[in-house]
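Project outcomes to date are best conveyed with an example. Our students and postdoctoral researchers have been running inverse folding experiments weekly, and each run begins with a structure described purely in tokens. The record below, which covers 179 residues, was selected by the lab manager from last quarter's runs and is presented without edits.
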């Protein structure tokens, strides 16, 4: 009996320690962070799923800056993969959206923000210039790419970043009647 209780406690401890310490970034979370005076550019962000960017390489382009080249259906494709839980930083804050960069360089960011019919508690999702089905057209590295994520990719922040509090304490000195 004691062994079963001990085993249950060990399993519970492992499960609690493995639980996610991240929360989806939403308008609600953004307001909470901004109300504490914390800059959104000071938070560490994480993408919640794998995302793939691809574009067709034209014949006159001889250099691929990043990614993998794949030959598919008679076309050369440049593919850039962003893996789940990759950390990113906010490079620019705009109303209802933020630009998150997952690698160093000019024009290397994805835009995340509030979608059209989202509530304040809905997570910021990847935004594109336009959507055709599950493919979004975006600009990345100054070139047009298509993002393959169905528009569902979101960003998360660590809950420890949200619970930072600054407490100012002081002791009242008291007053005496002046005569």
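After processing, the design step wrote out the following sequence:
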């Amino acid at each position: 009996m004691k062994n079963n209780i001990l085993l249950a406690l060990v399993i519970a401890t492992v499960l609690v320690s493995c639980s996610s310490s991240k929360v989806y970034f939403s308008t609600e979370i953004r307001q909470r962070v901004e109300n504490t005076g914390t800059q959104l550019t000071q938070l560490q962000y994480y993408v919640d799923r794998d995302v793939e960017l691809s574009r067709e390489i034209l014949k006159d382009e001889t250099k691929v800056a990043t990614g993998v080249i794949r030959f598919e259906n008679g076309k050369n494709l440049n593919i850039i993969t962003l893996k789940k839980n990759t950390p990113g930083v906010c490079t620019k804050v705009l109303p209802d959206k933020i630009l998150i960069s997952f690698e160093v360089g000019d024009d290397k960011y994805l835009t995340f923000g509030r979608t059209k019919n989202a509530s304040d508690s809905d997570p910021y999702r990847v935004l594109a210039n336009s959507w055709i089905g599950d493919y979004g057209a975006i600009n990345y590295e100054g070139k047009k790419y298509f993002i393959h994520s169905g528009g569902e990719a979101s960003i998360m922040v660590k809950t420890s970043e949200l619970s930072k509090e600054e407490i100012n304490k002081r002791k009242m000195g008291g007053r005496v009647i002046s005569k």
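The chain is about 15% helix and 35% strand. The chain has one domain: 19-159. The training component of this project remains on track.
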